[in-house]
Amino acid sequence: MKVKPAEGRAVRFPGTLRLLDKDGAYVPETAFWLRALSRGDVQRIHASIPSTIPARSAASAETATEKAPA
């Protein structure tokens, strides 16, 4: 899951004690991070995955389904 610190909060990674970046980071769904989420120390970020395949227009879809003359 991807989380970022809540406004006005600083959260450290367990073990390394490195601060969680304000832009967020992917973290494992461990008890530590789930507790931080439930306490409001972090907010879950729903990262959107950009589409690498462009959407086809209606015109190109019609052209693709037409058969070539024999």
UniProtKB/TrEMBL annotation:
Organism name: Acetobacter tropicalis
Name listed for the protein in its UniProt record: DUF2635 domain-containing protein
InterPro entries, per the entry: DUF2635 (IPR024400)
Lineage: Bacteria, Pseudomonadati, Pseudomonadota, Alphaproteobacteria, Acetobacterales
Organism superkingdom: Bacteria
Cross-referenced Pfam families: DUF2635 (PF10948)
